């Protein structure tokens, strides 16, 4: 029983990390839609900060997930807890597949020169980083889909009682991110209904009047 608890907690923490990463990616991806440009022009400073911060954060989290340091939470330390050795070896082999090598290499370069450390040359010449070591959207999505697949294929190994379909779980998370982001684009954070609610709460506060 203690082993199951340890594994369940390990799964929970790793899935939480992937949820954070994917939420950032889903919001950033949706914000790339040109139909929203009018909103960005109206609140340029805010949206510029949000978009660039999301981009940097999810890329850094993504490459950190594939860190081979056994002292950090990563796909490798996650799978190290998997007691099904056959499944573990299959998944580790899939991570090393040729189709992921390029994007992992590029992201490692980005982490060392921009995301985690600011290489002076590339900071002054950012276009050269993008041109020499392009981070392709399709390849990033492939990595994210791989992580979701691994979550789905290991959930019951960590906890037999976990019957969640994580493909549906992350699709639903994506839909929520899109819906919430569009709401903020359309209405901002202080909607008329929100303001009305705050006014009502203020009027019923013990300190009112």
Q: How many angstroms does the end-to-end distance come to?
A: 57 Å
The level of helicity is: over 70%
Order of helices and strands: HHHHHHHHHHH
Could you tell me the number of beta strands? 0
Rg, Å, rounded: 21 Å
Q: What percentage of amino acids are in beta strands?
A: under 5%
Number of domains: 1
Secondary structural class? mainly alpha
How many strands, which pairing sense, and closed or not: the largest β-sheet? none
Low-confidence stretches: 1-6
Average residue pLDDT? 89
Q: How many helical elements?
A: 11
Shape designation: globular
Characterize the structure shown.
The structure is a single chain. The protein has 209 residues and is mostly helical. The protein has one domain (2-203). Helix content is 77%, strand content 0%. The protein is globular. The termini are far apart. Residues 1-6 have low confidence and may be disordered.
Structure characteristics:
mainly alpha; 11 helices
Record the SSE blueprint.
Layout: H1 2-31, H2 37-42, H3 44-65, H4 75-80, H5 85-95, H6 98-115, H7 120-124, H8 126-132, H9 137-158, H10 166-187, H11 192-203
